[in-house]
Amino acid sequence: MHDHDDATTAGERWFDYAAAHPHSSMEIGGVAVVAGPAPSTVELHALIDLIRAAHPPLRDRARPRGANAGGPAEPADHLEEIALPAHSGEVALHAAIERVCAQPLTDVTWGMTLLHGHRDNEFALLLRAHHGLLDGMSLIGITLAALREPGLPPRRTPPKPPPSWTTGRVRALVRAVAGLTLPAHAISLGPARVQAPTGPPRRLWVHTPLPRMKAIARAAGTSLNDVYLAALAGALRPGLSDRAAGTVRAMVPLNTRRGHTSVALGNFHRGVPVALPCHLPTAAERLAATHLATANIRTGRRDPDADVLFETLPTRWHGRTLAWALHPRRTTMVATHVPGPARPLELDGHGINALLPVMFLPAGHHLSVCLGEYAGTAHLALVADPSLPDFDELPTRWLAELDALEAT
């Protein structure tokens, strides 16, 4: 099988989903905050050529649903530049990123935006792409390729065996079908009877030392991902006290690269539902419950039949199946985690101070979150519908949950 066949199949379901929900952008991305003077247009065109060389589908224009790619694009088609008010600072930078992301790409499936002027001797590069084209790990991969850095180390995963209808595979298919058909009772985070989207999404970022989160995980015998999700459950808890019975159901993307696709670019993931224990009263209890709830993620990484539903269904049904899985009555939010480079990187000799994730917001959802790692720092990105109550308080609440976990 070609390295990108699995990625193309997974990507098509996202293109279909986006076409069925034109008022919701399916773009993901990242922002590199770089120390140094803003690069020239010629330098940025060269950088765009390196990115397009890393993944051939990035050379193409956007295409209508069901059609072939619209032919090659020029580097200038991918680039825009925004000069911010002088010395306007980080708040102005984040607000500009929010405005740019509120205008989805049209003629191309990925783009780069240069933002500068907010601080002396600093600029930012926003890279965003349709989720059907790339997943978070692929974004890291093309970033490393553009910086002429070695890629992330291959994941140690067993090769994917040819599917055969064993008893275990049949049971996995039954579980997958049941998971989509049985009532999920997902709680909406938005105001009662308010259907998202109500306007352009809002975005916030917050960061904390990555060793801090790893130390909490070691002390509790859990994973870093468990700590991230448990802190999220605690951050959401104050807004759920007066809600009817139900579950805050997070869809957690799981990297499905195996064997020959372990370092391939494209879209290699599937969603795993995780019930966030927002109802439990203490941070320690929420972490213990989250560790139990994420057991299906740990077993899914080793299960050759974990993606049996999409492997069995005709491709033309994939988009509708994804839409059903992400329906607000079944899924409250998407919560993803993207490991990144462990050491600081440079762009043409200038240090990259931060890599901020940019997350998408599925149709009808009020909140999505992404935890990104870069050079010893964990960056939490939050994107929300404008109707979400107390959105500005979520980053502080998440950090407070980490404080509570450290104190246990």
TrEMBL record:
<dbReference type="Pfam" id="PF03007">
    <property type="entry name" value="WS_DGAT_cat"/>
</dbReference>
<comment type="pathway">
    <text>Lipid metabolism.</text>
</comment>
<keyword id="KW-0444">Lipid biosynthesis</keyword>
<feature type="domain" description="O-acyltransferase WSD1-like N-terminal">
    <location>
        <begin position="74"/>
        <end position="185"/>
    </location>
</feature>
<keyword id="KW-0443">Lipid metabolism</keyword>
<dbReference type="InterPro" id="IPR045034">
    <property type="entry name" value="O-acyltransferase_WSD1-like"/>
</dbReference>
<keyword id="KW-0319">Glycerol metabolism</keyword>
<comment type="similarity">
    <text>Belongs to the long-chain O-acyltransferase family.</text>
</comment>
<feature type="domain" description="O-acyltransferase WSD1 C-terminal">
    <location>
        <begin position="266"/>
        <end position="405"/>
    </location>
</feature>
<protein>
    <recommendedName>
        <fullName>diacylglycerol O-acyltransferase</fullName>
        <ecNumber>2.3.1.20</ecNumber>
    </recommendedName>
</protein>
<dbReference type="Pfam" id="PF06974">
    <property type="entry name" value="WS_DGAT_C"/>
</dbReference>
<dbReference type="InterPro" id="IPR004255">
    <property type="entry name" value="O-acyltransferase_WSD1_N"/>
</dbReference>
<comment type="pathway">
    <text>Glycerolipid metabolism; triacylglycerol biosynthesis.</text>
</comment>
<keyword id="KW-0808">Transferase</keyword>
<keyword id="KW-0012">Acyltransferase</keyword>
<dbReference type="InterPro" id="IPR009721">
    <property type="entry name" value="O-acyltransferase_WSD1_C"/>
</dbReference>
